[in-house]
């Protein structure tokens, strides 16, 4: 038989060699990709460092089209798709929670690439968008211009810890969409918001509060510069201390689960490999996605509303 004779050994060996060559190249390529996408492993990055890492840029772009907030789904829904529809639903939720008249002046504190600001502008608000991450500000300016909303939205660099450039009692509403979690001094930020609001002005904060029960979640919070985000139940006192009244909280945790489940499922296998290699902290977003999903219930997604008397 041809394949048992000595003349068959050669082609088999050649094929093995080719296989080894292909596998080697693949491993090299994957390693290069991992090294390329990994962040620098900083244990306590700044907000700008966190958002500027290639892992964040590629991750947010791929999964969320640079709209950096959760989607709102029907309770019990399994599929996270279409993600953009659920994100619009979350923006609509924030809009209705603001409960302000068209023509109101609102601040978007931590506007990212400007998608929430554009939603609010289309609803008839005049929006002052602020952020501290340079490439987000560039993006927001481009998006606002492209959509012809320059007369409804101003985009400026400002840190919500320091809003001295804005006048007292000059806003009807101030909102944050998943940005207040990054605050170093949450009480100070709320005092700033209070100063900027007119009497009867409102804040709406779509944020998270967390128990600090697990070390890995504390790591996730620090690596995404959320280390000072509030303990579960902490908002009510903080908001009252800043001088706000009529506190209301909606727990939306169940309604944001589908997207986090997607992060968890998509990230699970890579995360296990990163853990084996001991480099999981260089993939903050993969780690955050998987660990938040695995520890679902150790944190809440909440919509907080309060009024300046
Ligand atoms: C998760 S993103 C949300 C962006 C936007 N709200 C959205 O929903 O697409 C958080 C944003 O908050 C901004 N941010 C964090 N700390 C801030 C601060 N101290 N002052 C202003 N913006 C801040 C970040 O730069 C980032 O753009
Ligand atoms: C606050 O912001 C203003 C201008 O926006 C700036 O001149 C001032 O130095 C800032 N203060 C601090 C403490 O960073």
Written account of the structure:
It is a single chain. By secondary structure, this protein is an alpha/beta fold. 47% of the residues lie in helices and 17% in strands. It contains 11 helices and 7 strands. Strands 3-2-1-4-5-7-6 form a 7-stranded mixed β-sheet. The longest helix has 29 residues, at 9-37. The termini are far apart. The protein binds S-adenosylmethionine (SAM) and 2-acetamido-2-deoxy-beta-D-glucopyranose. Residues 47, 51, 67-69, 109-112, 115-116, 130-133, 136, 159-161, 177-179, 182 line the site of S-adenosylmethionine (SAM).
Strand and helix layout:
Layout: H1 9-37, H2 47-52, H3 54-64, H4 83-98, E1 105-109, H5 115-122, E2 126-131, H6 134-146, E3 153-157, E4 171-177, H7 186-196, E5 197-210, H8 215-223, H9 235-241, E6 245-251, H10 253-277, H11 284-294, E7 299-307
Helix pairs in contact: 8-11, 10-11
Question: Notable features of this structure?
Answer:
309 residues, elongated, seven-stranded mixed β-sheet, Rossmann fold, single chain, alpha/beta, 2 domains
Largest sheet: 7 strands, mixed
Shape: elongated
Structure class? alpha/beta
Mean pLDDT: 94
Distance between the termini: 94 Å
Strand content: 15-25%
Hetero groups in this structure are: S-adenosylmethionine, 2-acetamido-2-deoxy-beta-D-glucopyranose
> Which value, in Å, is the CA radius of gyration?
23 Å
Relevant CATH superfamily of the largest domain: Vaccinia Virus protein VP39
CATH fold group of the largest domain: Rossmann fold
CATH architecture of the largest domain: 3-Layer(aba) Sandwich
Protein name: S-adenosyl-L-methionine-dependent methyltransferase
Pfam family, one: Methyltransf_11
Transmembrane segments: 21-38
InterPro entries: Erg6_SMT_methyltransf, Methyltransf_11, SAM-dependent_MTases_sf
